[in-house]
């Protein structure tokens, strides 16, 4: 991965729960390709980082908290192990009351506490805003969905063109983008208590949004793009529609959150990005583990070693998305060596 000064580099991160660890391992390897001895921070490489759900959480850690890869992986493991614990068993009366109010499976307060712990560990205040009011070298956005008015909302650390958007605190933006439906309760933000959930339904792969944001920030972005890197969290499992409303509903959700279908559509819609004008390099590159993650559920922290093994095993077969779309262009092998493997640091943030 060569870096040319004066060019723009964009990073897009999919949602995927605990499988987001795979994204981090791939990105860690890319940073080590740049400099094996002293890998740069992603905020020093990319001009814009965008993410949804777990990808949004990672985007904030890398681009707003300016964390290096090793620190980010430690923090990600700490948060995952802290938050994916089922709520305490309810008594009969509580179950009757809860019957008429859908709640997330996991504790939202535990999620908030973990996010705030990570923020404080970087030396920032929990009250610091996403957009601090001064220009940020590395710009980030995260996707969420408004509960009252469905549609993807973007929380940014920069001021976009148009009307001034809602500017939440860092932890609120992280909490909103990671509030996966049925996993965590929505969060109320702002003076009017608007409620937000993660943006996985509709923007689980935010690569198109990332390109749109880049064009808004830099009007001359297109000829200046060196890379658009999109990192996934594994191929989805194949499943039939089923013959009842519940299974059909689950299948429709899988379709609406299929990040890989979005990757293919993006490559077809932007052929000028899939292959450079002189066919000497790829501008748009998609990295995703093709096998091994499809049966790992979003909350299965016990399978963290499987995620690492699958990512390491499949990393040498990553190819540019365009080659998978229509068998045109020139596939580029991406060698990913010396990943974190099975030996992980403890969940403390030291």
Automatic annotation (TrEMBL):
CDD domains: Pat17_PNPLA8_PNPLA9_like3
The UniProt record lists the keyword Methyltransferase: no
Protein name according to UniProt: Phospholipase, patatin family protein
Pfam families linked to this entry: Patatin
GXGXXG (motif): residue ranges: 15-20
GO terms assigned for molecular function: calcium-independent phospholipase A2 activity
Span of domain PNPLA: 11-211
Gene3D superfamilies, alphabetized: Cytosolic phospholipase A2 catalytic domain (3.40.1090.10)
Keyword flag Hydrolase: yes
Source superkingdom: Eukaryota
BP-aspect Gene Ontology terms: arachidonate metabolic process; glycerolipid metabolic process; lipid catabolic process
Motif (DGA/G): 198-200
Taxonomy of the source species: Eukaryota, Fungi, Dikarya, Ascomycota, Pezizomycotina
Active site residues according to the UniProt entry: 53 (nucleophile), 198 (proton acceptor)
Motif GXSXG: where in chain: 51-55
Source organism of this protein record: Lasiosphaeria hispida
Keywords from the named record: Hydrolase, Lipid degradation, Lipid metabolism
Coiled coil: none
Cellular component per GO, a single term: membrane
